[in-house]
Amino acid sequence: MRYYEELARKAERESNWWDAYRCWMNVGEAYGREHASACKTIAEAVDLGNRYRELVGYAYERWENHEINNAELYDIQCRAHQQVYGH
């Protein structure tokens, strides 16, 4: 079990949260499951943030370059937020 714990900690240091999650699951017991749960939460949050940024794309840069106005930027951000977070 020590082997998987070392792999999990290495994955955490490298921000490879899904790898860390899988390694912690292999550690087993409450200790491993608790760490796995935390890594899964972080991995899911990172995935959501990445998806949001992907949907917004270059809208902020387009706004800075005056290609779109405040209302258009806000609309893009709102639609992305709705798609990703559902609120």
Task: Give a verbal description of the structure.
The protein has 87 residues and is mainly α. It has 2 domains: 1-43, no CATH class; 57-87, no CATH class. Helices cover 84% and strands 0% of the residues.
Count of helical regions = 5
Please report the distance between the alpha carbons of the first and last residues: 41 Å
State the low-pLDDT regions, or none: none
Described by strand count, sense and barrel closure, the largest sheet is: none
Based on secondary structure, the structural category is mainly alpha
Name the overall outline: elongated
What is the number of domains?
Answer: 2
The SSE string, one letter per element, is HHHHH
- Cα radius of gyration in angstroms: 18 Å
Layout of strands and helices, then pairs:
Blueprint: H1 2-13, H2 17-27, H3 29-56, H4 59-64, H5 70-85
Helix pairs in contact: 1-2, 2-3, 3-5
Q: Short description, anyone?
A:
The chain has about 90 residues and is an all-alpha fold. About 10% of the residues are buried.
Provide the descriptors you would attach to this structure in a database record.
87 residues; mainly alpha; 2 domains; 0% strand; elongated
